[in-house]
Amino acid sequence: MFTISEDCSVINMWKINTAAVDEFYIQGGFGLDPFLSLLEGGKGGWQERDLREFFHFGQFIHQGERPDTIRTLSMSLQVCEMINIFQALGFFPTKYQIDNILYEVLGADLSRKHQAETKIKYDELVKLYLNHRPCREFTMSELHQAFQDLYEGAYFSDRDPSQLKLDIDPIFNPESLVTKLVSNGEKTTILELYNSLSTLMGNKLEMQQEEFTEVPPLPFMPKEILFETFFTTVLGFKNENYF
User: For residue 119, what is the enclosing H or E element?
Assistant: First the structure.
């Protein structure tokens, strides 16, 4: 390799030690090993075990949940089950992010039919997850502040992190919470929120109507929803050190 300086006419000739590059390549591992090392716990760790288990479970779900169904496992999965696996791993992409992920796999045709007909291999799923998962996790303080901003109607306002104010904990009733979530942030419907909250709270009845003009009764929800209630009772997380 030859280089020349911008400030003088000296030409330098370099010899590359390819053996060192090859050694680092070998240390990194072959095939999927370099990518598995980026998962929590590394190769053979808990996250890889979960990912592989969810990968197979996604195939079962796609084949149907009837107990008399003959099931087969393979190293490929229908794309329509891919996002569910990401969510099971704790990565909850927005609809915009989901469209980007699907576009990367499917191209311009994002139809449900194309998702069901197209399969993705396990290796590709691992790489896709690593490429799109968040760089860092949200802190409890950030989640708490977002809950307060939602109450104040300033969910998308720019706020200096040094000005976080967590001294006031807002209280929602179920109807006002759904109204705020529908009218702020990513577009969603009352029906989608109703069914999501119903699932989170273990309520087996789901609404089947296509549209709602107003929030229906939510008897399965707590009557008063503080951040702690929302985080633990509704979402099901546990963080005893924070509260």
Answer: strand 119-121
In whole angstroms, how far apart are CA 63 and each of 8, 68, 123?
A: 69, 11, 21
CA 243, CA 239: separation in Å to the nearest integer?
Answer: 7
Q: For residues 118 and 144, what is the distance between their CA atoms, to the nearest angstrom?
A: 40
SS3 state of residue 12: strand
The pLDDT tens digits for 188-202 are 888 888 888 888 888
Q: What are phi and psi of 172, to 5 degrees?
A: -100, 150
Alpha-helix runs per DSSP H in 29-165: 33-36, 46-63, 82-88, 95-106, 112-117, 122-132, 140-152
- Residue 72's SS3 state is coil
Q: Which residue has the tokens 């950030």?
A: 142
What does DSSP assign to residue 215? P
pTM given for the model: 0.65
pLDDT in tens, 141-154: 888 888 888 887 64
Question: What Å distances lie between residue 35 and 28, 64, 104, 135, 201, CA to CA?
Answer: 9, 31, 18, 15, 36
